[in-house]
Amino acid sequence: MKAFLLRPTDPISLSFFRIIFGACLLWEIIYLFRIDFIEGYITNPQVHFNYDFAPFAQPLPQPALSLILLGLLTSSILLVIGKFVKQAAWFTFISFSYILLIDKAYYNNHLYLICLFAFFFAITSSSQSISVEKMTPKKVPYWQLLLFQLQLGIVYFYGGIAKINSDWLIQFEPVKTILNQRASDSMFSSTLQSDGAVYFISYGGLLFDLVIFFLLMYRPTRKIALIGAVIFNGMNAWLFDDINIFPFMMLGALVLFIEPEKIRNFVTKKLPFIKLAPPEQTIDPTKNLTFQLLGIYFILQLLLPLRHFLFQGNTEWTGKAQYFSWRMKIQTRETEKMEFSVLNYDKKEIVNVDLRSFGLNDDQIRLLSMHPETGVKLAKEIRRTAELKGMKNIEVKANVIVSFNGRTPQSLYKDVDLSNVEERIFKPRSYVTRLTE
User: What DSSP designation does 335 have?
Assistant: First the structure.
């Protein structure tokens, strides 16, 4: 096994993906500048829904946050040109992870994947080919390429596992809802709303996710798998308008499965302005500790998406154990009502809460109907604010009515004082209603 992991490999695949990854990161950071992310999403809100395991992820002053965003912009450019790659990757991993952990409202699977890929680039030698660095290129051990391949396999496979549920397989939700929404502004509306389209995307998408990694890794099926992956990710880019760079980064990642010699031949013949020196056979040694730590990393990656089995209830409905699990595009929600109120028993009055008074943005408000634990945190902040105003004998309740995957709208929270609920990592969410099947 060790000989397999250490076999010398042409680094050109890693270098190509480094360029694509850097370009996608650059696109993402420019987008964050365009939407004024620092002010509108970090410094303005008075409440942030951070993670229990990361209480340290608190917003820094705005000038420091702006410097971090500028640093990420610079790092993305360095990754593209291949200069100070490891330093840029470490900065990206640490800074982007910090930003992602500030608030659950900003979690997205592709942002999580950016953090993981940045970490991989920090510990591998992707600048050994196609780089402005002046060096004698060397081959890299195969495990450096395998890291990326395995991570992509986990993303696809667990994305498929998450689809094995009655909503997806029997009710064809959220596929029906998504296609109906897309059909409203498409010339192919009748086709998108047909049973054939629903069956194809539901069962075809499930099958694709479950088998694509294995087909990509097996050379005889690789060509057809690459074609299928291009079509699949292209359809995702067309169907979904809220996944930004994700399908393009996944398309770019396909280069990791193409034989390095084919990439080198293509560059030599089609891109002669890129001067490629053949890499030397020698590779840098790898410590056993590296393999041990990476083994632990992948064990965690395999176990984290399964932790929802520890809890009762529909994971998508309760939000329990949903993050960092590659559960992608398997639910839709329509919020019919969103009310938080303070019951003041001393004055026998009900005071409705203006959520905007806490500086909450649209993403945070939307999260209140998707992840109930955020409602608990908001309720505690509402109680604190009310007590500062002299209210004592009070309760904080939420009336949030949601239609989940096409079901009849129902209440998300039970009739309880959310400000007294204790939310813990291994504690089930008994304050959430049972999902109507």
Answer: E
417-435 confidence digits (pLDDT tens) = 999 999 888 889 999 999 9
Burial class (CB in 10 A: 0-12, 13-18, 19+), 307: middle
First to last CA, the chain: 48
CB-based contacts of 345, cutoff 8 Å, min separation 6? 393, 394, 395
Distance CA 119, CA 380 (A): 35
Q: What are the pLDDT digits (tens) for 30-49?
A: 999 999 999 999 999 999 99
CA distance linking residue 397 with residue 27, whole number of Å: 41
- Residues of 280-294 as b/e, b for ≥16 C-beta within 10 angstroms? eeebeebeeeeeeeb
How many angstroms separate the CA atoms of 405 and 263, rounded? 43
Q: How far lies 41's CA from each of 67, 104, 113, 188, in Å?
A: 16, 11, 21, 36
pLDDT in tens, 273-310: 776 767 777 777 788 899 999 999 999 999 999 999 99
Cβ pair 396, 342 in contact under 8 A: yes
pTM over 0.85: yes
Q: Is 398 strand, coil or helix? A: strand
